[in-house]
TrEMBL record:
Transmembrane region(s): none
Organism the protein comes from: Trypanosoma brucei brucei (strain 927/4 GUTat10.1)
Catalytic activity: a 5'-end (5'-triphosphoguanosine)-ribonucleoside in mRNA + S-adenosyl-L-methionine = a 5'-end (N(7)-methyl 5'-triphosphoguanosine)-ribonucleoside in mRNA + S-adenosyl-L-homocysteine
Protein name: mRNA (guanine-N(7))-methyltransferase
Alphabetized InterPro entries for the sequence: mRNA_G-N7_MeTrfase_dom, RG7MT1, SAM-dependent_MTases_sf
Length: 1057
């Protein structure tokens, strides 16, 4: 006979033939929607029951292949081979389930058989297979079905068995596109109490591991409903509950108490809720239409038993997991403004994700949402690979986490503030290094049954990992590992849990063991390291161990980072965590170019009003509480196309950028959206990032070799020192100084014997002290440098007097290092005959410099091989000459500095004059000499404007011969030139402050110098005599002598700056 409703061939009535064998099943396909959620528009319609399915042709018989076990096997194999976790789909184009019935289900057949199966109680079994979109589940489901079906098929009490799949999650634009749930169900004859226990035992004995076995009344109607048979609406807090119930009435209401600081009371309340919820499934009849359940979570802080707070999200996870295990759904989670600020601290997801703010029940149900626990972001651990956790497991994991979270080591960042302490520890103890994984820090906890639990370090959220990790739990029972959950490069939903250390092994604390012994326990668990992890894996998450190496090979880790997951920087773990003196620290290093901070977006505005391509997001950080505040009115500019979803309340991560002048700015790295659980950095944390620079790559590598810079005498670390060959140990600069050694300021030799200068504590080696007092015995005293051809009277006398001044000082001081200011090149021959080894002259005129350079080349044969002579064009009175230019050309100090011409140029202001004198003093060795010549206008000032046949002077009416003033001078009827006043008293006073004392023998007028010159017999006129009396030479000697004995120098900062 042909059953039009079933759309397939149906065998004849039972009366035509003998009764079918008890193991014979009729095959049916279920054409249910993939996504089953509450539809408020069909509230009055009956959406469940086999009659409804047959009427709407959503239950279709399948007779291909005929009767028998072989045909049944082909049927199930064909069906399950096409089962997949498909993407977002709400249609009924493909079968979503199967029903195997011992009776024929037809609208023209025996109605009692349909009613019996529809109303029969039974069990709903949730199968543990991957639940994310695109996962390969067909082989696992087929194997589980075979075990399940062949266990039940021979039992005469079984009326029907079946499979149904559903999809939870209503957003198609997510990275994680919802959760796929797979269920087996069995309808049985109304059992006796002992029959219920019998079936539960039988189902628990199946080879595959079910997530939950639930007793449900009218299980076929429940599992094969066109809508979700039971939907839950959650409210958090009394305010949210009152608002929710202000418009709408649920079928049932349950109350759950959350005690954040008392996990035992919280779990007791959840157990009570679970009991009531499961009782509802057993008591409800026929499921004619969806049942709406309201669950109000009341948060009570009155009990303080533990230190680890139980997050509200973990309670939501219990509610959601119970719905997932029983084919129910959560239509939404409602919060109030008060709860939002107090419990979450940030903006929640949108209503499309199932979150509602100040919403009513009718509004939530009309929205038709489906709250998906696996795609809900909370904290930093992805939710899609977690599985349901029992109350006993949660309480155990919470107890262990409460013990180990406070002692879980957080690496100390390497920066300028921690560098000194890190250098001290790196020099004392061996360190091991690993790549710093980018991800969420977690604790992995195993129990005595081999279950593995994951604890988010930042939020304290606890979840159970899938059963395929029981291998780790079996090899390391009752153990605690420190790990990181990181995104894998293999697929956008793949993650890897990288074990980085072990805290406890089989209930024994192993933290104080040397690191190699601790790590042996990790390797004992037979975990692959991340480099040898199998490339193909059916699971979305894998547990591997990190790779350690000795700290000296850190550069190799940086050059060859892991290829399977993201890393940023390095982590250094000490050989011994606890030592006799103090606890050693774990350090982390992040490149300075990769420093990031997490902010919440304030206002978002256009940078250019006429164009919206460039946006500006103002940055907010957390204060001491859960409130947000502006971070110094700083912002980040970004291109809108790079982050179109960014809006006020979004959590973003920004890279800190710096310029050479010390300023900084932010660049957008990534945005997380306004997801719950992601917290911004506090104001203090961001301030430290900005104002305490990290270590450069070069500084980090130096730190790894800190043991080489540990002083063998004082045992401090310093990069300023050298090897002591006598003691075969490295000595720091302080120890060298305390033993009479130091860095010679003159010759530049390092850690040599010597003494400090009594004037300014500068150190000079013994050899240099000897050269400071050595005179040029081979100097040609009496040689006068010839003046240039056609030289004027002023140039002639200047050349002769300068030569005589050099003869005066040469027998008394060393003259091997000479600096001549405004040299002119006239005295080069004199210095060469004086046997000066090193000479540098400066002049502002390039023509003078060129002529002097040619003269040096022509006189090279008169110099020794070690002589160095050079003339350079430069402005010696500029601000940076002495501190920058001169030190590059001639880094050591000078024996003699002269300014025979142009000395007055430095006296334009009092500041420039003092700067020159101070610079000259710093450039002289102890005992060095400075000679300067200038026109002294002070004796002529009383005569008023003065002039004769040789020179003439003029000045303003208010002129005074003080520093900063000038007069006009004309020599031999030439042009009047501006000349600055050089007051002798000012010059002597400033020189005394700089450690320069007058050399009386070399201080005289040109007339006085020539009077003492026996070789000068030229008759001079009265005008020339007046000029010679006005020209004055002055000489200073720098104070300073070697200190007697070994005197320790001032305290030196031994830590590298």
């Amino acid at each position: 006979m042909l059953n039009a409703n079933a759309r397939s061939f149906v065998p004849q009535a039972a009366g035509d033939h003998g009764a079918p064998h008890r193991s014979n099943f009729y095959r049916y396909l279920l054409m249910l929607p993939t996504i089953r959620k509450y539809d408020a528009t069909k509230e009055s319609e009956e959406t469940s029951g086999l009659f409804q399915l047959l009427t709407k042709r959503l239950l279709c018989s399948y007779s291909h292949g005929g009767p028998g076990d072989d045909a049944l096997q082909v049927f199930t194999t064909t069906f399950f081979s096409n089962v997949k976790n498909a993407g977002y789909c709400s249609g009924t184009e493909a079968p979503t389930g199967i029903l195997l019935s011992r009776s024929i289900l037809s609208l023209t057949g025996t109605v009692s058989d349909i009613c019996a199966i529809s109303a029969a109680p039974g069990f709903l079994v949730r199968v543990e297979v991957p639940k994310e979109c695109g996962a390969e589940v067909a082989p696992q489901l087929k194997a589980a079905w075979d075990d399940y079906f062949w266990t039940l098929r021979e039992d005469p009490r079984v009326l029907a068995v079946g499979y149904v799949g559903s999809f939870c999650g209503t957003s198609s634009s997510r990275r994680y596109a919802g959760t796929h749930r797979h269920y087996f169900f069995v309808s049985i004859i109304i059992p006796q109490p002992e029959d219920v226990h019998f079936f539960q035992t039988a189902l628990l004995g199946i080879n595959f591991h079910p997530l939950r076995i639930t007793e449900v009344n009218a299980v076929a109607s429940f599992a094969c409903s066109m809508q979700v048979p039971l939907t839950v609406v959650v409210s958090i807090g009394d305010d949210a509950s009152k608002k929710l119930l202000s418009d709408g009435k649920p079928d049932r209401s349950f109350f759950v108490s959350l005690y954040p600081c008392d996990v035992s009371r919280t779990l007791s309340s959840l157990k009570e809720y679970e009991t009531h919820f499961l009782s509802l499934l057993k008591e409800q009849n026929d499921w004619p239409k969806p049942t709406v359940v309201h669950v109000n979570i009341n948060i009570d802080y009155s009990h303080h038993v533990g230190t680890l707070v139980c997050p509200v999200f973990d309670m939501l996870a219990f509610v959601g997991d119970l719905c997932d295990d029983t084919a129910a759904s959560v239509s939404g989670v409602c919060v109030s403004d008060t709860t939002l600020r107090k419990e979450f601290g940030v903006t929640l997801c949108t209503e499309a994700d199932g979150w509602f703010l100040n919403a009513t029940l009718n509004y939530v149900l009309a929205a038709g949402r489906s709250f998906d626990m696996s795609s809900t972001c909370f904290g930093y651990v992805p939710q899609h690979f977690r599985r349901s956790i029992t109350f006993a497991q949660y309480e155990y994991a919470h107890k262990i986490a409460e013990k180990w979270l406070p002692v879980n080591c957080v690496p100390v960042p390497l920066n300028r503030m921690t560098f000194a302490a890190a250098a001290e520890e790196f020099s004392k103890y061996p360190y091991y290094v690993r790549s710093k994984t980018v991800g969420a820090n977690v604790l992995l906890i195993t129990n005595s049954e081999g279950d593995v639990f994951c604890v988010d370090v930042k939020t304290g959220s606890i979840s159970a990992l899938p059963d395929y990790f029981r291998g780790l739990g079996g090899r390391a029972k009752n153990s605690v590992f420190s790990a990181v959950v990181a995104s894998s490069y293999r697929s956008y939903l793949d993650y890897v849990i990288i074990v980085e250390d072990i805290l406890s092994f089989e209930e024994a604390d192993v933290r104080e063991l040397p690191f190699p012994e601790r790590w042996f326990y990790v390797e004992k668990c037979l975990l692959d390291n991340y480099a040898s992890r199998p490339h193909t894996s059916p699971n979305r998450v894998a547990i591997v161990r990190t790779i350690y190496t000795v700290s000296t090979q850190a550069e190799r880790l940086l050059r060859n980072p892991p290829a399977g997951h993201p890393t940023l920087g390095l982590v250094f773990v000490p050989h011994v965590t606890n030592c006799k003196e103090k606890d050693t620290s774990v350090y982390s290093w992040i490149p300075t170019s990769s420093t990031t901070a997490v902010f919440i977006v304030g206002d978002v505005e256009n940078v250019h009003p006429e164009s919206g391509d460039v946006k500006r997001a103002w940055l907010l950080v957390a204060d001491s509480g859960k409130n947000t505040m502006s971070y110094n009115n700083e912002y980040v500019d970004y291109i809108w196309d790079s982050a179109p979803e960014l809006r006020s309340g979004s959590v973003i991560e920004c890279v800190l950028k710096r310029s050479d002048d010390g300023s900084h700015w932010w660049e957008l790295l990534r945005g997380r959206g306004p997801d719950m659980g992601y917290q911004p950095d506090t104001f203090d944390i961001v301030e430290r990032l900005v104002h305490v620079p990290g270590l450069t790559h070069k500084e980090m590598l130096w730190l790894l070799d800190a043991a080489k810079y540990r002083c063998g005498r004082c045992h401090n670390v310093s990069d300023v020192g050298r090897m002591n060959v006598k003691h075969m140990a490295y000595w720091c600069k302080k120890c060298w100084s305390e033993t009479g050694h130091g860095d010679c300021l003159y010759c530049g030799r390092f850690c040599v014997m010597g003494k400090n200068d009594t004037l300014n504590q500068h150190f000079y080696c013994d050899n240099c002290w000897g050269t400071f007092s050595a005179t040029n015995l081979k100097a040609e005293i009496g040689y006068l440098a010839p003046p240039p051809e056609n030289a004027s009277f002023a140039t002639h006398v200047l050349t002769r007097c300068a030569s005589l001044l050099i003869d005066i000082i040469t027998p008394k001081v060393a003259t091997n290092d000479v600096l001549e200011i405004c040299c002119g090149g006239y005295l080069l021959r004199k210095w060469i005959r004086n046997k000066t080894a090193r000479y540098i002259g400066f002049d502002l005129k390039s023509s003078v410099v060129d002529a002097a350079s040619e003269l040096i080349s022509s006189l090279r044969h008169e110099m020794t091989e070690m002589s160095f002579y050079d003339v350079i064009c430069a402005d010696v009175f500029s601000a940076n000459f002495w501190s920058h230019h001169l030190t590059k050309i001639h880094p050591r100090q000078f024996h003699v500095i002269t300014a025979f011409a142009g000395f007055h140029h430095a006296f334009g202001t009092e500041y420039t004059a003092m700067r020159l004198i101070e610079s000259v003093a710093n450039a002289l060795i102890p005992g060095g000499v400075f000679i300067g010549c200038f026109f002294d206008v002070e004796p002529l000032f009383a005569k008023g404007s003065f002039g004769n046949g040789v020179f003439a002077i003029e000045w303003a009416a208010d002129f005074l011969p003080r520093v900063g003033n000038h007069f006009l001078l004309s020599v031999q009827k030439g042009h009047f030139k501006k000349v600055n006043v050089v007051p002798v008293d000012f010059l002597v006073a400033v020189g005394r402050e700089c450690g320069l004392v007058v050399v009386p023998k070399a201080c005289s007028t040109f007339q006085g110098i020539l009077d003492n010159d026996r070789g000068f017999n030229k008759t001079i006129s009265s005008g020339e005599k007046d000029y010679l009396l006005a020209m004055r030479a002055i000489a200073f000697r720098k104070e300073g002598n070697a200190q007697a004995g070994i005197v320790p120098t001032q305290n030196v900062d031994l830590n590298r700056d």
